[in-house]
Write a structure and sequence with these properties.
A: alpha+beta, 2 domains, four-stranded antiparallel beta sheet, 12 helices, elongated, B: about 425 residues, alpha+beta, 13 strands
Chain lengths: ~400, ~425
């Protein structure tokens, strides 16, 4: 296919050609970044969380007298465990993705706890059998023993006095990169240290805490025995997924009967997760909608412009047909023309997309866009251009040669 | 002449119905998306107290230890959160017209009627000046006074919506409300009051948008009754049971100055206070900040990134729609070279041809604007059904209504400029020859 006549034709229609190129460039730039943002957010929503999300319900019991916790908690747990279908129950200070953050700066020695870049970690305190109630997945080491639970009380600083901890794989990698974390010491402040007895699969924090997704899995677990203090509020009740709704209703009824003066707030973990990511999910839909509408507008723009173009060039097409060009030739002419314009558009668009990404990285929490987004959206726009041009190009190829003999 | 141009434009639209519809639709979508996101952005970045925001300031100090301190590079780490001791000292210095210390908490409210479940309400623990300083309007009664603060009196101010719920909207001043299992006497009932963004809650761990707080209590009384602040940060091992003296931050201080220009004097006072604490060995870092309300909101980046990204995206989309409209208008105009040639030959000047085409594109703009308004209302309706805190507040206001048409007209006139110019440079003779 000779592209000389196409270039000659384009030179006669500089401005419409430039407009198509510009539109494709803008669409390409926006598409790249929007799709990248969508991908980033889907990644966020799909973050792994190694607990039994389908089987867990969380019941917050608030507004009870904190002085009575030492008696209330065991009594409530005993009642919960009697509900048919409950496989495990325990109390914890906070749950993943509930936005109720309990964070601490930790270090591998007392000296580096206060360091500027010592990691900020989510701390979960829970009572015995909470490992089973949560469904933690042990990768190495062991869970806590009943002695370790019994020996750990909450200090005045709201940090348990025990000396053992479970850490997530991500936290272990952060604190001791490339080394074995088992048996090592984690320090909270200068006064509290814990030996790592087990490493569990990644569990999410109560919230992202503004430190980026990498830190979202920095969680540690400490054993605790119920004592006075109003901090152990979240009752975890685990059951088979199909029993969960029934178990939750029964648990609420029991807890409300046991503490008539309390405020009981039940929620399943799947609802916790949905609530936490609700904004992210609506942002994804908004981005998808914008992309679809934008591509539609671009496609219609190409259809419109090319249609006029074809209409304007009926005579030229007729002459070409009269001197021997086949329908396929005419079709090819417009398709190649569109391909050239799209190519110019995506070339400019990829540079623009890269620039926008750099700007967003500077001003927002945005990562560098992986390179393959650029060719991917280029291909998308090439395909879109070819589809959009097909209609007008077919109409052009149907122009009969006799048009050439008519005046206008 | 204008009427004639309108007529010509309508004829031209009728000739290319699908194309005109496409142009209007594209422009409408672009404008609708832009106005929707702009309305949300305006809502989020608004001035919560326009009548006095220039005179409201908050104090930021840095209580962290000397370790890790880099002079000139460190800044107060927790926004305007500060230790209780310092907030109260600054409060008692009375260096401003009004000043209040505050923290947020969850108040358990037990209805007096038997059989009703207790519930939690967002609550503010603060000091007497809070209401006058933030222009919180009273329906009944008033706030409490400084003496009540010092006496740890059990008095409360409740929001109108809570008064409706508990007392059926009647004047409940003097009645008793049971909060965290203690009896508080109601001193006042607020009218609807929910500044957007809720600037004082930003660092205290509250929601920044949405409904206002329900209960307001004297800070010291509430703390005595064991109500815990929402957001506590400590820089070393701390006795959480005695937060007031612990190395922790959990309250913030806001002040109202008589004139915005008094800020320099107050900043100096604040700086001197910190210097004094350094010489006493309590503090180690001299950096202070004293941002005004709007500066504080900017520093804290209250407006969610997503809202700004969406606005950027919508305007990118609008740009594409405008380029699209330019292309289509141009294509249309190029096909009408003969019509233009005839008009020119019959005596129309370049200026009249230009005017004719601008009227035509202006009409596309107005139609696009009208459609944009429909899309914007649709978009805002969708946003009101979103889970975001601010969702319920998303409504089109008059200024945005006007902005819609300004954007639409500017967009379409820009879109029409190139085609109109191309039209008026058409030379009549060659066009006529081919007729």
């Amino acid at each position: 296919m000779d592209i000389q006549p196409i270039l000659a034709a384009l030179r006669k229609h500089k401005i419409p050609a430039i407009l198509i190129v510009l539109e494709i460039a803008l669409a390409c730039a926006v598409l790249c970044n929007a799709v990248f943002m969508i991908g980033q957010r889907i990644g966020e929503i799909k973050l792994p969380n190694a607990i039994d999300e389908q089987g867990i319900a969380d019941i917050r019991v608030l507004g009870t007298d904190p002085k009575l916790s030492a008696d209330d908690v065991p009594r409530n747990l005993a009642a919960l465990r009697q509900i048919p279908g409950v496989t495990a129950a325990a109390v914890i200070n906070t749950m993943p993705l509930t936005n109720n953050g309990w964070n601490a700066g930790v270090g591998t020695s007392p000296a580096d706890v206060m360091d500027k870049d010592s990691p900020n970690v989510a701390t979960y305190f829970f009572t015995s059998s909470a490992e089973q109630a949560l469904g933690l997945r042990l990768l190495r080491g062991r869970f806590f023993t009943s002695e370790e639970f019994a020996g750990s009380k909450l200090s005045d600083s709201y940090i348990p006095t025990g000396h053992v901890t479970l850490v997530t794989q991500s936290l272990a990698d952060r604190l001791w990169p490339g080394q074995d974390a088992l048996g090592r010491q984690v320090w909270i402040d200068k006064d509290f240290h814990f030996t790592v007895v087990g490493i569990v699969a990644d569990v999410l924090r109560p919230n992202e805490n503004g430190e980026g997704l990498a830190a979202f899995h920095w969680s540690m677990f400490l054993p605790l025995t119920p004592g006075p203090g109003g901090y152990l509020n979240d009752y975890i009740v685990r059951s088979a997924p199909q029993d969960r709704e029934r178990v939750l209703r029964a648990a609420v009824a029991k807890l409300e009967a046991l503490s008539p003066n309390a405020v009981v707030r039940p929620i399943t973990f799947t609802d916790i997760r949905d609530k936490y990511f609700a904004n992210t999910r609506s942002m994804i839909w908004m981005l998808v909608l914008v992309c679809v509408v934008m591509l539609a507008v671009t496609a219609f723009g190409i259809v419109g412009l090319t249609s006029f173009w074809v209409g304007q060039r009926r005579r030229q097409i007729g002459i070409r047909r009269a001197v021997g060009a086949t329908r396929a030739h005419i079709l090819q002419h417009f398709q190649t023309e569109n391909f050239l314009l799209s190519s110019a558009g995506v070339a400019a668009g990829m540079i623009l997309a890269f620039g926008i990404n750099l700007y967003l990285m500077q001003h927002y929490q945005m990562l560098r866009m992986p390179w393959y987004y650029l060719p991917a959206s280029a291909i998308a726009l090439w395909v879109l251009g070819q589809l959009a041009v097909l209609g007008p190009a077919l109409r052009a190829s149907n122009v009969p040669p006799v048009v050439a003999t008519r005046d206008g | 002449m204008f009427g004639y141009y309108l007529d010509l434009a309508l004829r031209s639209f009728r000739r290319n119905r699908v194309l005109t519809a496409l142009m209007v639709l594209a422009l409408g979508l672009g404008i609708g998306a832009s106005i929707t996101t702009l309305t949300v952005l305006k809502l989020l970045s608004g001035d919560p107290l326009p009548q006095k925001s220039t005179r409201l300031f908050t104090a930021e100090i840095d209580p962290l230890p000397a370790k890790g301190y880099v002079p000139g590079q460190s800044k107060p780490p927790w926004g305007n959160l500060m230790p209780y001791v310092d907030a109260m000292s600054l409060l008692r210095a009375h260096k401003a017209e009004r000043q209040a210390v505050m923290a947020l908490t969850q108040a358990k409210v037990t209805p007096a009627r038997t059989g009703e479940h207790p519930f939690f309400s967002d609550a503010v623990m603060t000091t007497a000046d809070f209401f006058a300083m933030f222009d919180a309007p009273f329906e009944y009664g008033s706030g409490w006074n400084a003496q009540d603060d010092d006496d740890r009196a059990r008095v409360a101010v409740i929001a109108g919506f809570l008064n409706d719920k508990l007392f059926g909207g009647k004047d409940s001043v003097g009645q008793v409300i049971r909060i965290n299992d203690h009896d508080y006497r109601i001193a006042g009932v607020l009218k609807d009051w929910s500044p957007q963004p809720r600037f004082y809650a930003v660092d205290l761990g509250g929601r920044s948008y949405g409904d206002g707080d329900g209960v307001f209590l004297p800070l010291q009384s509430a703390r005595t009754d064991g109500m815990d602040p929402e957001n506590v940060s400590c820089w070393e091992t701390a006795d959480i049971a005695h937060l007031e003296t612990a190395p922790c931050v959990f309250v913030s201080l806001w002040v109202e100055l008589a004139h915005a220009s008094d800020a320099t004097a107050y900043r100096t006072f604040l700086s001197n206070y910190v210097q004094q604490q350094i010489s006493l060995g309590r503090f180690h870092r001299p950096e202070v900040a004293f941002p005004g309300l709007m500066e504080f909101l900017a520093l804290e980046q209250v407006v969610p990134d997503d809202a700004r990204l969406q606005t950027g995206l919508a305007f990118g989309f609008l740009l594409i729609c405008i380029v699209n409209t330019v292309g289509l208008l141009l294509a249309k105009c190029l096909r009408r070279s003969r019509e233009i040639g005839v008009r020119r030959a019959l005596g129309a000047t370049r200026r009249t041809i230009f005017a004719q085409f601008m009227v035509e594109s202006g009409m596309v703009g107005i139609a696009g604007g009208l459609l944009g308004l429909v899309f914007a209302e649709l978009g805002l309706w969708a946003i009101r059904h979103q889970p975001a805190q601010y969702a319920k507040l998303a409504h089109l206001d008059v200024s945005m209504f006007i902005v819609t048409f300004v954007i639409a007209l500017i967009a379409s006139l820009i879109a029409g400029l190139l085609p109109a110019w191309r039209a008026c440079v058409v030379a009549p003779a060659p066009q006529l020859k081919s007729v």
